[in-house]
Amino acid sequence: MATFLECGPFSARDGEGRLLFEDALVSLADGQCVTLEGPSGGGKSTLLRFITGLAWSPEAGRTLEGADFAGSQMPAWRARVTLAAQDAPMLAGTVRDNLAFPFAQRAGCLHDFDEGASSDLLQAVDLGRLPLDREVRTLSGGERHRLALVRGLLWDPPVLVADEPLSGLDPEVAGQCFELLLRYARRPGRLLLCALHDPEFNSRADRRLRLAEGILGETR
Amino acid sequence: MSGLIELGPLQLATATLLIVAAGVVSFVLRLGVERRLAIAALRTTIQLGLLGLILERVFALENPWLVVGLLLLMTIFAAREAVSRASRRYRGILADAWLTMAASCFLVGGIVTQVVVGVKPWYDPQYVIPLLGMILGNSLTGISLCLDRFMDYLETRSNEVELRIAFGATRREALAAPLRDAVRTGMIPIINSMAAAGIVSLPGMMTGQILAGSPPMQAVAYQIVVMFMIAAAVALGAMLAVVFAGRRFMGPDATLRLDRMTSESHQ
Asked: CA angle at residue A97 from A92 to A100, to 5 degrees?
């Protein structure tokens, strides 16, 4: 299958100097849901931060659909290969602020914030009752995680990179959210890379990467 | 108009009793600040005494290079003081602080002394040194507050900054919120003192001029010029300081480099 996303090599050590990964290369096709597994503390989040260009890695190459990104094009890369970070970070402000802010940035001028689409997505993750002017600091952990998921899907980048997007959700809602993620991923020109630790969800992925003991490999 | 009552050694010695009284309060209430109070009082005496000697010399010599040299020296000290008050550092912070100080001080000070007041000759130390000194003193507070707040924001709210970056924010977009927050913080003291001027407090400079025998309306006019000058210098200085700092923590690729920040944990 043709390569859609290609980046690396990435090398990183943890705070104690232990090797997390070395010269890791990531090469993925589109239309897939790819999961990243591995023991906690093994560097999954770090690797995802490298792929999305949040961690400083000037020596790594990054290619999406044949186009190279480096230097001052990194904001454009991140707008296309977007990280939904662990623990669902939020801006201080309302639900609307948090869903709409990417569209107000220069990278977001490609399309406008669509309130209809956002309420459909909120509905789909069982947050339909959530008013858009609610302050995010009043949300529960589970609500924040779902809101972060909705933000990523609404942004609809070519590659969505999600770090533990389903943590803190009860099994039923987590299932609903996973279906939504699968539907997003299995389209041409889209790719989902997500760190998940649920064996059942992982078994349904199209490809399963595994990062353990400094080696990025694959689970068949 | 009444003339100036001169202060001699006896008067200064009497005033010393006041600082001793403050020390006694600290001792009785076990505030533990008597040592720092004593050192601060000593520093004030020595630093101001030296300044007095230097100023008498500079005033007498009427040499423009001497005035400019003294001003440059003052910007260096101000930069050092501003940096030492911030609780976090980065490589090059001193150079950035000095550049900021020099730019805001010479630009705003230049406009005030040359255009607003119209000092003749242009370097007349009687005007130039106290006016620029006041700019420096206030910019110093503004810049250190502002830098401190900026770095604090980047560190404690890095989640929010990186969230914007993750969705494709450019450097300007990613730093807009911390920059606004920091400049606002840096400007609070001068805004407060402008708002309270004349109602809650008699500004120090105006008090000094009145004590020295100036007509009150003249003192008021100077004070207004000085307040506006300080506000402009603090706004400019604070903005420059965070723009410089922002460039150190984020390149055009908009990656947040918190690894370039160090804390002064011993302070």
From this structure: 140
